[in-house]
Amino acid sequence: MRKRNVTLAGEELNLSQSAISNCLKRLRDHFDDKLFVSSPTGMMPTALAEQLAGPIQESLAQIQFAVQSVKAFDPSCSEKNFKIYISDVGQLILMPNLLKTLSVVAPQVSISLVNVSPRVAQSMMAEGEIDLAIGTFDRFQAGFHQQRLFSKSYVVLARKDHALLKKGLTLNTFLNARHAVYLPPAASHDSFEIFLDDMFQRNNKRRQVIVELAHGLGIAEIVAASDLIACVPKRLAESLISTESLALFPLPFEAPIADVCQFWHDRVHSDPGHRWLRNLVYKNYSKMNPSIAH
Q1: Domain residues for 209?
Q2: Which residues have CB under 8 Å from 84's CB, separation 6+?
Q3: Residue 76 domain-assigned?
Q4: 3-class DSSP state for residue 115?
Q5: Which helix (H) or strand (E) segment is 81 a member of?
Q6: For the segment 171-216, what is each residue's pLDDT rounded down to a tens digit?
Q7: CA angle at residue 132 from 93 to 280, to 5 degrees?
Q8: How far apart are CA 162 and CA 168, in angstroms?
Q9: Residues 192 and 234 in one domain
Q10: Which of 161, 265, 276, 292 is deepest in the core (most CB within 10 A)?
Q11: Contact assessment for residue 189 and residue 89, using Cβ atoms and an 8 Å cutoff
Q12: Please, where are the H alpha helices in 94-189?
């Protein structure tokens, strides 16, 4: 169901393709249903297979927990790889400190970072392919837990010699400026962008969005080489203004502050290794200095 491929399923289970095919044949005979049929995108499940997948996944999760709970998690000698869903900016700002801590308390534990859409991330977390999500997400469904780490606020990034900003940034200047919008796939700025859209509408203005950016890399260079302004998290802006041609401005209006949280699926809620990782992340980020976290 996850791999959509007999060979890949065999590799994950350390079984040959023929062994997987024989197992699949017995299942087909038992249910009198093909269960999976070939398609250009892989082995697609039938309606019966989709009906069976949920209960079977829950049962497997319970078995996995029963097996893992017998053995305590020892971070000092564990070689576990944790997969974390986080944006490129999160990687820039949050990961160095976490990896520094890991090198001391769990030197053989490794981290793999994943960058997909929030919808895909939820599916991967439910299937056990992502362990933890860190960011601001408004649309996680039932079955997920979350824990607040810190809050973030936004500022405006612009070129120092921007013609419209010589006397500072006012609301009118902001409304009439040309904008670069930062919309990373692995971090939700939806609430803030909705707030801005409403604000422009209340002021009878149309926001001039010249470019939408999916990655933090390059924001400084784009803003420095143009007359665009960009609303970005304050911590990101502070890491970018080392470039002499950039300036940081507070928002010329009151805006909501967003919470950065860690999210995990119920299937790993009681897993000892996962609990250890969540506690480590919380200890690293929940007491961040406000001037750094915002």
Answers
A1: 154-250
A2: 111, 112, 113, 114, 130, 131, 132, 133, 134
A3: no
A4: coil
A5: strand 81-85
A6: 999 999 999 998 876 556 677 888 999 999 999 999 999 999 887 7
A7: 65
A8: 10
A9: yes
A10: 265
A11: no
A12: 95-105, 118-126, 171-176
